[in-house]
Amino acid sequence: MKKTIIVVLIVALITILLAGCGGSTEETAQPDQEQATQDTASSQQAAQQQPTRGSTTGTSTDTKSKVPRELEYTKGSLPSEFEKAVEDGFVTVVAMYSDDSVSIKVSDSVDEVIESIDYKDQIKYLSYEITGKTSSSVARLTTALNVKYMPSITIIDRDKNVVFEKSGFIEKSFFSHKLFNVVYKDKSPE
């Protein structure tokens, strides 16, 4: 008798919990259908607004860009020292920063790594402070490199591919390792 009462109570409790969590009553089913219709309409609208892969618009809805990827730009549109470094086949390191404390620490760390390596003749290091007075060519460079947050470090290999990008704080040893692997990519394992 006690077992029967306990089983009945458990079944009743489970029924109440299921009903309270959006069980299968008609009142709760109707809003779910409306929500599904709204979600479908929203995703269709977002798909129509996204640029196609081959489009030339400067906007992108990607939250994270793919690496490695080919660097795409129009000659003469980016800073001349950047274009020359890339065209001359150097491994190019681009640091973009603002005047906040994290940016300054990252910039100092990258400077320290670049100065301490013995293969710096194979690298061109360019850093740009992004402010309200940033030139249009540097602004186009931020777009070409898909920079969204400061500080940002990007490495472009000799084949004009973006092979590394990182926003925010970066450890010196991690950056140094990545740079070494890009410079000696055919000569050392990752």
Structural commentary:
With 190 residues, the chain is an alpha+beta fold. It has two domains: 35 residues; 115 residues, Glutaredoxin (3-Layer(aba) Sandwich). Helices cover 46% and strands 15% of the residues. The protein is built from six helices and five strands, in the order H-H-E-H-E-H-E-H-E-E-H. It has a five-stranded mixed beta sheet, sandwiched between helices. It is elongated. About 22% of the residues have low confidence.
Topology diagram in text:
Layout: H1 2-20, H2 26-49, E1 69-70, H3 80-87, E2 91-97, H4 101-116, E3 123-129, H5 136-144, E4 152-156, E5 161-167, H6 172-183
Parallel strand pairs: 2-3
Antiparallel strand pairs: 1-5, 2-4, 4-5
Low-pLDDT residue intervals, each spanning 5 or more residues = 23-63
CATH homologous superfamily heading of the largest domain: Glutaredoxin
Give the class from helix and strand content and strand pairing.
Answer: alpha+beta
Write down the secondary-structure element order: HHEHEHEHEEH
Biggest sheet layout: 5 strands, mixed
Gross morphology: elongated
Annotation, overall tally of beta strands = 5
Helix content: 40-55%
| Radius of gyration, taken over Cα atoms and rounded to an integer in Å | 27 Å
Give the count of structural domains.
2
Would you identify the CATH architecture of the largest domain?
3-Layer(aba) Sandwich
Beta-strand share of residues: 5-15%
Mean pLDDT: 76
Strand order of the largest sheet: 1-5-4-2-3
CATH fold field value of the largest domain: Glutaredoxin
Distance between the termini: 70 Å
CATH class wording of the largest domain: Alpha Beta
Number of helices: 6
